[in-house]
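User: Before I run my own analysis I want an independent prediction to cross-check against. Here's the chain; please return only the structure tokens and, at the end, one sentence I can use as a sanity check.
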Amino acid sequence: MTLFDPNARDRSGAHRHLYALYEIWYTAVDFGAALCFVVGSVLFFSASSQTAATWFFLVGSILFAAKPTIRLVRELHYLRLGKIETLARRQDPL
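Assistant: Structure tokens:
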């Protein structure tokens, strides 16, 4: 098993379940980042709200940085799940 294997999500039902959960988180973070950038852009039209706009851009940037982190954590979770399934097969007396 390797990191970022495109077939990893189809290895088992547990892998498919993990894939779905991580995709929900990934999409929510993506949506939140986009929303922060849109709100920040609108706030920059007024000089009085530029500080708030800067904060929205910062939060949006942090959310965009979280996206590859979510993908990496998912892949590490796949690896751990694969090791557990391999161990379970070894321990199966049948």
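Sanity check: The first helix runs from residue 13 to 43.
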